[in-house]
Amino acid sequence: MLLNIVRSTTAAVLLTTSLIPQTRPALEEQIKQLERSRQDAFVRGDYARIERETADDYTTINGTGAVSDKPRMMASLASGRTRVLSVALEDLNARVYGDVAVLTGIYRDVNVTAGVERRVNARFTRVFARKDGHWLAIAYQQTLLPQ
């Protein structure tokens, strides 16, 4: 009986300690890749993917401080009012806290909004939440950087 308790306790400790260092970097890389794939979807015009990977209560704050939500973002994309031509991501840093992940980085894009081509350089924060085993974007904020 005592031997079984010792074995169970030892196995639990080994499992717990061996998973923490291996899991965290893998999850952090998964979040970075999720953002890369999300930005690729914007460039390709894969709005169905963006729709699936964005929470219904998603909010975004752009570099000028304007607040938007998922319905407005999706309507703008579907209408062609906004098109992303290219995106470069730099300095990505992901942190995972259970079912929430915070990603920060630098975002450089070329887009066309209302017929006007713009270049945007911004530092950003995106928050993801895991629901039913899938990560969803729930919030985004950017701070414009000098050109």
CATH level 1 class label: Alpha Beta
Helix content: 40-55%
Shape: globular
- Biggest pleated sheet: 6 strands, mixed
Number of E strands: 6
Distance between the termini: 69 Å
Count the domains. Answer: 1
Which fold name is given in CATH as the topology?
Nuclear Transport Factor 2, Chain: A
Write up what this structure looks like:
This protein is 40% helix and 46% strand. It starts with a helix and ends with a strand. It has 3 helices and 6 strands; from the N terminus they run ααββαββββ. Strands 2-1-6-5-4-3 form a 6-stranded mixed β-sheet. Mean pLDDT is 88; it is low at 9-22. It has 147 residues and is α+β, with helices and mostly antiparallel strands. It has helices at 2-44, 47-52, 70-79, and strands at residues 54-61, 67-69, 82-97, 100-113, 116-131, 134-144. The radius of gyration is 19 Å and the shape is globular. It has a single domain, classed as Nuclear Transport Factor 2, Chain: A.
Secondary-structure blueprint of this entry?
Layout: H1 2-44, H2 47-52, E1 54-61, E2 67-69, H3 70-79, E3 82-97, E4 100-113, E5 116-131, E6 134-144
Short description:
The protein has helices spanning 2-44, 47-52, 70-79, and strands at 54-61, 67-69, 82-97, 100-113, 116-131, 134-144. The chain is α+β, with helices and mostly antiparallel strands and 147 residues long.
